[in-house]
Every structure is written in structure tokens, then in C-alpha cells.
Amino acid sequence: MSTFKKLASLAGQTIIIFLITFVLAEITFRVYQHFNPTFIFYDPSYNRLRGKPGALNYDFHLNSRGFKDVEFKPKKKPNTYRILALGDSFAFGVVPYQYNYLTLLGQQLNSGCCEVEVMNMGIPGTGPQDYLALFVNEGLELRPDMVLVSFFIGNDFTDTMHARKAKPYEYSHVVALIRHVIKIHQNYTGQALFTQATYDDNTPTFTDEAYLDIAKKRSLIYAKWEPFKHALADAVYYLVRIKELCDLSNMALRVVIIPDELQLSPTLQAKVRKALNASSNELDFTLPNRLLREQLRANRIDFSDLLDSFLSASGQMNLYRPNDSHWNIAGNKLAADILTSYISSQLSRRNLTTRMNWKDEEKSRPS
Questions:
Q1: Residue 90's domain is classified under what CATH number?
Q2: What is the pLDDT of residue 345?
Q3: Is residue 200 part of a domain?
Q4: How many domains does the chain have?
Q5: Are the beta carbons of 322 and 205 closer than 8 angstroms?
Q6: Residue 346 — very low, low, confident or very high, per pLDDT cuts 50/70/90?
Q7: Domain for residue 103, yes or no?
Q8: Could you report the per-residue pLDDT of 212-231, keeping only the tens digit for each?
């Protein structure tokens, strides 16, 4: 046999072995995904992004539903005001459980006029479409008195636009896994990604280049960008559907609008403008908030926009983790304080109304 034929035969055998290995790996990963959904592989359900029940997150174990909270009790205790919190990685939190703004909110509200229970159902990587699905599938049965939706300006518009759409490489689980591993090594700092036992508020998550790239992509919503109108309409659509369900069940709905660090940091804004070769007039960093507030008012959805408060505080302290669009411990504390004040006033009015109705019932009873 000639050398050429030997090489051709070897190449053919190598290709066959590669294809068999690829197919077997693909089948293995798909079976694994079926029984243990993970964010690495594409799945239209929010379950691919849900935490694994009992998984360790710093010094806290996720509950049996995979949420970063204590166990949920299906039946609400008497005289308890139950708040169901929906959101993405902001609600889930990149800080330890005890520093999360929803954890602090529950503690601070409990020191007020009544017993309050805040149930954190945040799932990283989700958007308004997932919030609605999660509320329908798992939230309604818990019968909350209030639904609190954390809406992150940075990606909740675009998450809605791209929801349920797989990218070409995601159709192969093998390719998706390889791409994920490469992305980790290129974009993340090792300590921030892999250290789960301890938390460091000052360790960067992304490299400088990777974080700037994220900011550049998100900056599209601050431009006069035609598709943003559709993204806004889609996001509001799902919030309105949540409100309709809340109204039917006599539940209050509150939306907290979470600002992106790009809206607060002049330094980051300058870097983004330079990278995009954009003038100061081409990017309006308050535009999404103004348009969203307008739509929420039009649909009679109560909200609290944190942008102005965070802008004021950002001059005195860092509120976000380095090279990370999520709040650090101080940012979570500030958000909890604002929301405590916001919700406490409503709870006080509710208790006053309840007491007035009780007195009216007493007067109307025959002596």
C-alpha cells in the first residue's frame, strides 16, 4: 500500500472515530440536560438557569426549589404579609445571602408594623417573559399579597427580545460546552468565578476588555435605536400580563427599576463613547427609564425607579462590584433601604385601612 493510501485510510478512520465520539458526547450531554438542566445548554425554559437544590453559594445552601432563600412554606402564617420577589441575577444576588437586598428588605420590614415575609424567586439570566412564566407556574400557588418585580435596565429589555431564540452553535451541546469553557478563560478572572467558599467585594469578575465589551453591547438601548421600541413594548407586555393576574387575585404589583452601572459612571460612559466613536448627544443614559416609567404609569403599574438615588450616592461610594454590573454589599444595602421606605409606607396605609374597616364593621353590628 502506498504512503498516500495509508494516509487516506488513517484520515478516514480518524474522521469516523471523531464522528462516533462527537455523537456519543452529544447524546450524553442531552441526557444530562434532560435530568439536570443547566445554563450551558440551550433550553427555552427558565429551569435551565435555576440553581440546583441544596447547592452551596458561599456559606448558604439554596432551598429545595433551587432559589437563594430559606425554604418556602406553601401556607402563609396568619397576620403575615407575603411578598413574592421575581427577577434575574440581581434578585438572586452575587453577594452572599445575608447581604442580598431582598434578604435585608425582609428583615427591615419585619421590624415595622407587621410581620412580613419576602420570598426570593430570582433566577440568573431570566427576563420579563420568564418572570411571567415563573409567576404562573410557581408563584401564584404561594398566594402572595404583593409581587415585587426587579427590572434591570441593563438587559431586561434585550433578554425579552432574544428570549426563546437559540443561537446556531447552541443546537449542538458539545459545541456549546466548548464555547462556554473558552469564554470562561477569556473573560473571567479566576478567583471571582471559582471561589465559592468566601466572598470578596473588591475582586473583579470580568477582565477590563470583556466588561467594556458588555457595556458597549448594552449601550444600544441608550441610543435612538429603532428596535428598542419593540423591546420596550415586549417588556411592558409581560409586566401588564403579570398585573392582570395580580388584579384577578387581589395582589399588589410593584416594579423596582434597577439602574445599570453605565448610567452612573462617567468614566465607563467615556470609555464606551470612545469605543463606539459616539458623541455625547448620541447616547442618552436616562432614556430607557423615562420611557419605561411612562409605560408603567399608562398601565397603572406602581414602581420605584432607583436611578436618581443611586446617582446621588455613587459620588460618595462604590455601589457595584469591580468590572461587574451587579451591586456590591453597599449597593444591596442602599437598594434595601430605599425599598423598605417605599413598601413600608404602603403597608402602613394598608394596616390603617384594615383597622378603619374593622371599626366600621364593629359599629354596624347590632348591640
A1: 3.40.50.1110
A2: 78
A3: yes
A4: 1
A5: yes
A6: confident
A7: yes
A8: 999 999 898 998 777 788 89
